[in-house]
Fold this protein.
Amino acid sequence: MIQWLRTALAAILLILFTLVLLPVQLVCLRFDFRPRRVLPRFWHRAACLALGIRVRVHGELNAHRPLMLASNHVSWKDIVVLGSVADVVFIAKSEVKAWPVFGLLARLQATIFIERDQKRSTGEQVNEIGQRLAASEIVVLFPEGTTSDGNRLLEIKTSLFGAAASAVPLSPTGVVHVQPVALCYTGIYGMPMGRFHRTIAGWPGDIGLVPSLMGLLRAGAIDVDVVFGEPVVYEASSNRKLVSREIGSRIRSMLIRRLRGR
């Protein structure tokens, strides 16, 4: 009974907040007003409150632009968490457009959708990411390309860093700053989550979005630590593989240290 009451309360809160912000965001998107970048952060903060996600931030968001955030990927919850701490745009697969509710929210946040299976359009998609970076938008990249169990970092796909390279010629300073971010799901009910319980926060590919959402609501409260690391400067002479390797090493180090409580 309590679970259903909590679910209903969360839904009501998010619906009301969405109805308030929706018309304003639509106007801002239509005329490309700057508040379109800021309003989603308020929605994500409300979503964290409604869903019982408690966010703790360590380190600082890099102040330099253009800026790309490279983060490990655990769940759809990563979107809500990162969106609550910074004015960011995400890169998502094109299928997300068709998702109920989440597809609409992604479009309202001006998400960059990519067609993974259409190599002909890859260049155009990378250029769009580069243009958005050059326009001082903070773009979030999940270089693993898929979700993990939250206990480790999967293999980094170096090709995804081509977006940073494409933004270098458009940057006023001739460089792009790539900042590693570690998302660490560390607690449940105020207690340490532990390796075997971290699957509650994760989102394996064989679990649907609705069951995952209901599982989060049943959990009551989840703690997540967002760790901002030292950025890497990407310039014209940078080697994409070396940069991606360094970023991956920093994310992995931050993730392991935080999961171990250090």
The helical segments are 2-31, 35-51, 77-85, 102-108, 122-134, 162-167, 209-219, 240-259. Strands lie at 53-58, 67-71, 88-93, 112-114, 138-141, 175-188, 191-192, 222-228, 232-235. The two ends are 38 Å apart (CA to CA).
